[in-house]
Backbone:
């Protein structure tokens, strides 16, 4: 996406975490052909999972923030984006209140409550921390807030967490996101939190990788730090809009799941060994070369991939340490890559993957290619007999208003495109006067892995759409479209989970 108007689509989904409706049972034919589903062995599907057992526990619907309070009433950040169960995580909190508590909620389905309270702290003394600083060269916003409390994750189930900060007397509330990651992903569908993209868009302190005080590229940050709170969604970053709806649906299905982040995928080349499938969620734009190499290797070993958004794997980044620890700074100089000291020292240019030097368009992995922003268009079905659409009732030519947006991808043979790619939706769009198409597409890799891409950024958001436009609709996407995307996603997840890894 270009620099102009990047903030507009981040005001974001009406009714985030509004609740998913029930999906009917999803059958999927067996066989090796793409038309009938991913390669699989006949026989029973996966047995009971830890995910199902966890979601059988009572949920806690009071996880939502109801009284955020003034901007600086309370806010904080964690000194890790992820932790293994049993590891300690430091919180760095600033508040105008004399004290606060921390409550850890694991996000999932939980009978529709969408979260379960795992832990709550004793009351902690409150401190108003020093103002943030802005690096003069890179315009990086960071804080030097000391650790104010430590969270021990012993006994916590793997998954996506929101740590809610509650200031004394109802003065304010904020979230701090945390992934309690899986040590092994073998035999599971892997949910990948796109924390690097969350941070790229984080405008806390007035700067992100798109905007600075002037509202555009000339004053934007050239690198951004995790040593600051998230501005969007009361500190949750982009999780509630682009990821939580898919997490809820996947956990509702009770399939074997594991959890990690893009940073962890980059750091550990063996993390995806034996994984059944990997899920990239609603907006996963910023990848390191290491993450891309490790996901590609997983595909080539037979692991299925699903890209449930658009504009994925578009920007190439590098990680550097901050005073807090390793991999706490996201470096992306974009068009100014020649001036990046890291590039001059021999690192890859932190610009678009498709751009020189070292051009490697994302379509060679995804099958589709990012094509533009902004659009708002109907989603048009063109292959209604495909196994992914089983049970949707959709026919060729059916359309779902507003489901394509605000960014979109397409199959573009002028770029590297896997052989045998097929489309199940081919939706006309007009992007700033230019006529094009958004494509939902999939292909089968030589390993037998199926790679699926929705071609629209609104796919995960649409999982929340349950009513008529103007009701609980998201971006005008109504319940009919929500029923469609929920069923297709269920077919996809069940099909991937039933596939037997080589």
Residues:
């Amino acid at each position: 996406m270009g620099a102009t108007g990047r903030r507009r689509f981040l005001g974001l989904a009406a009714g985030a975490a509004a609740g998913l409706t029930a999906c009917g049972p999803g059958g999927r034919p067996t066989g090796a052909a793409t038309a009938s589903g991913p390669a699989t062995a006949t026989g029973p599907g996966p047995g009971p999972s830890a995910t199902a057992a966890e979601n059988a526990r009572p949920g806690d619907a009071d996880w939502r923030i109801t009284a955020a309070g003034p901007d600086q009433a309370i806010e904080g950040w964690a000194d890790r984006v992820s932790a293994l169960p049993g590891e300690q995580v430091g919180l760095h909190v600033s508040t105008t209140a004399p004290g606060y508590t921390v409550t850890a909620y694991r996000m999932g389905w939980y009978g529709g409550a969408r979260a379960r309270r795992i832990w709550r702290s004793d009351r902690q003394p409150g401190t108003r921390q020093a103002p943030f600083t802005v690096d003069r060269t890179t315009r990086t916003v960071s804080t030097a807030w000391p650790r104010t409390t430590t969270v021990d994750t012993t006994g916590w189930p793997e998954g996506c967490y929101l740590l809610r900060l509650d200031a004394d007397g109802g003065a304010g509330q904020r979230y701090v996101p945390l992934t309690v990651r899986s040590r092994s992903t073998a035999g599971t569908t892997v949910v990948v939190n796109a924390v690097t993209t969350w941070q790229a868009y984080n405008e806390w302190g007035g700067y992100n990788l798109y905007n600075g005080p002037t509202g555009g590229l000339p004053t934007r940050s050239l690198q951004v730090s995790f040593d600051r709170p998230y501005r969007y969604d009361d500190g949750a970053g982009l999780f509630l809009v682009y990821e939580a709806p898919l997490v809820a649906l996947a956990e509702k299905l009770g399939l074997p799941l594991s959890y990690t982040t893009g940073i962890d995928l980059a750091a550990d080349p063996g993390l995806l060994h034996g994984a059944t499938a990997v899920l990239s969620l609603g907006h996963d734009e910023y990848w390191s070369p290491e993450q891309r190499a490790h996901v590609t290797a997983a595909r080539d070993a037979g692991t299925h991939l699903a890209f449930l958004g658009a504009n994925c794997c578009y920007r190439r980044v590098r990680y550097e340490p901050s005073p807090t620890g390793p991999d706490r700074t996201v470096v992306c100089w974009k068009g100014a890559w020649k001036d990046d000291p890291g590039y001059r020292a021999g690192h890859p240019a932190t610009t678009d993957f498709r751009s020189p030097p070292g051009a490697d368009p994302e379509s060679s992995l995804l099958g589709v290619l990012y094509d533009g922003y902004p659009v708002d268009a109907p989603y048009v079905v063109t292959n209604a007999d495909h196994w992914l659409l089983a049970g949707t009732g959709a026919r060729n030519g059916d359309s779902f208003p507003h489901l394509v947006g605000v960014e979109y991808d397409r199959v573009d043979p002028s770029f590297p495109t896997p052989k045998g790619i097929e489309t199940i939706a081919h939706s006309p769009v007009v992007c700033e006067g230019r006529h094009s198409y958004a494509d939902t597409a999939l292909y089968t890799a030589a390993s037998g892995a199926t790679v699926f891409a929705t071609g629209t950024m609104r796919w995960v958001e649409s999982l929340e759409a349950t009513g008529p436009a103007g009701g609980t609709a998201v971006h005008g996407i109504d319940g009919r479209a929500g029923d469609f995307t929920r069923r297709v996603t269920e077919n996809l997840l069940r099909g991937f989970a039933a596939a037997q890894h080589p």
User: Anything to note?
Assistant: The radius of gyration is 22 Å.
